[in-house]
Amino acid sequence: MTDKLKKEIKEAFEIDSPVGKKQFLKDFRYPKLNKTDFILEQIFYIRKKTWLFSVLIMGFIFWFLHFYENSSTPNMNLWIISSLMPFLALIFTVELSRSSMFKMEEMEAGCLFGLSQIFLARMLIMGIWNGILLFIIALTANLYLPEGMIKIFLYLLAPYLLVNGLSFYFINNKRERGEIYSCAAIAVMVSICGMIMPRFLKRYSENIGTWVMSVVWITGLFMVLTQLRKMHKKLEEDRWNFA
Amino acid sequence: MELCIDRVSKIYGNKIACDRISLSLHKGVYGLLGANGAGKTTLMRMMCGVLCPTSGTITFDGIDVGKEEYRDLLGYLPQNFGYYPEFCAMDFLLYMAALKGIPKVHAKEKASELLELVSLKNEAKKKIRTFSGGMKQRLGIAQAMLNNPKILILDEPTAGLDPKERIRFRNLISSMSAEKIILLSTHIVSDVEYIADKILLMKAGQMIHQGTLDEILSVIKEKVWECRVEKNKADELSEKYPILNFRNEDEDIFLRLVSEEKPCEGANRTEAVLEDLYLYYFNELH
What distances in angstroms separate CA B154 from CA B30, B40, B43, one per listed residue? Predict the structure, then answer.
């Protein structure tokens, strides 16, 4: 077919203008996001300051490790790093309870990806992020401190889990909004305990600190698991009593 | 298209917020009226699947209210809602679109279209915390419509809107009524009167009336009277009949009341309006 013929055919036939195009486009149901896409999208809705504060905590720990020499008190530097973990845990908790803090629960609950899925997505994102941070902190601490990797992990995770466990307990049993202040208070108290604990434990055996941290670790893990299960169950099955 | 509410109850402790409510909603606009504490919000929350009924079922064409499939067809504006302070109007709509499973490329297009529809296009990049109550409400209405829902449930959507915005909202709802089930609750009786095809009246957790405007007004048809009387007589009538309006006029008092028979000399029968019925049912004097 020559170009001339093509042109003449084009000119001879006039295409009908579309009928009901606007309505069709309006009613057209696009393929929805799948769960993975939804979780990936949620990464962009984690607040910038959440990323920033956690990186700042990590940065402070690097600075401390680099510039502070070992103290005479056993494990003192590890105790100090450990006492910053409650603030990392606080950032995690604040991000998880954003919906309730800003009264978005009801609106979010009525969406395709309901509140329990938003909660799980945030928990997954923040869990992975904090896991990476803790791992990097532990690796770096291992370069500067003599305690060994297992002990470092124990000291980092114990206060982190304890603060998360206690915070989730407060969120699950809240009577009024403002639970975030309780969580902040818990983080500060656990952090202060971490600071003063080595001075107090100095008079006992050198290993007592490790025993204390092991107990805290087990208690914290137990609380986190039970309270998270409770929290998810509350969102998924019971739904709220908004009254 | 049928939203079926079958003997739904919600009990909080000893209080029955909703008492065995049964309804069948089809395409059109339904206005839910009732005094504070009548159970409107509880019913709407159960219809949106955000609150579990104590008993009974809610289904849309056989799909249970608790299913994701149902939420995909739902647009909901709660009575009291917040917002994330770091969001601008566009961010908010994009966030809600993500929760509704709308891919970003379509979400942007839809969000712009809706911002224009609710007259917030120029404020798209402004932080929500700088918005007035009416603007926040309009943004809430826009998010409810993001997924082109088949069921639109709006709890007091006109609260905080000025008269011009209310009229715009009414027109918007009316234009969508042919293809959706729209349920809205409000205290502004005239909004319901103008746009609702059917009116649902709730009192103390029960659905006491449902029907078209004419059908529900038949309860007080030819029973609304207006008269001008002296103060003593006005007090006497106030004790005897439900008063719809009580107004001082010079030395006399103007009364609008409901009565089976002529309440006094000089009283004139007048046409009943929805507000009369509302006051008749919900006036505490009654």
Answer: 10, 11, 12
Calpha distance A163→A175 (Å, rounded): 19
| Cα–Cα dist A109/B48, whole Å | 9
Spacing of C-alpha B70 from chain mean position: 21
A71: pLDDT strictly greater than 70: no
Q: Residue A196's domain spans which residues?
A: 46-238
Whole-number Å distance between alpha carbons of A121 and A111: 14
Q: How far apart are CA B116 and CA A63, in angstroms?
A: 50
**A131 within domain boundaries:** yes
Q: What is the pLDDT of residue B89?
A: 95
Mean pLDDT for B34-57 is 91
Residue contact B101–A38, C-beta within 8 A: yes
**Which H or E element spans position B32?**
strand B28-34
Which ipTM value was assigned to this complex?
0.84
User: Which two structure tokens, joined as six digits, stand for A196?
Assistant: 């003063």
Residue at A163 is within a domain: yes
* Kind of pairing between the strands at B252-258 and B63-64: unpaired
What is the pLDDT at residue A242?
Answer: 46
Q: How far off is chain B from A53, nearest CA to CA, in Å? A: 16
Cα(A220)–Cα(A28) distance, integer angstroms: 49
- For residue A29, is it within any domain? no
Q: How far is Cα A108 from Cα B49, in angstroms, rounded to an integer?
A: 11
pLDDT higher than threshold 50 for residue A142: yes
CB contact under 8 A, A107 and B100: no
> Are residues B138 and B77 in contact, defined by beta-carbon separation less than 8 angstroms?
no
Separation in Å, CA A19 to CA A23, B107, B179: 9, 25, 19
* Beta strands across the sheet bearing B268-269: B243-249, B252-258, B224-229, B268-269
Q: Are strands B224-229 and B252-258 parallel, antiparallel or unpaired?
A: antiparallel
Residue (of A159, A211, A39) closest to B101 by Cα position: A39
Q: Among B41, B50, B63, pick the best mutation site for testing chain A contact (most A Cβ within 10 A).
A: B50
Domain count within chain A: 1
Task: Give the pair of three-digit tokens for residue B108.
Answer: 């942007």
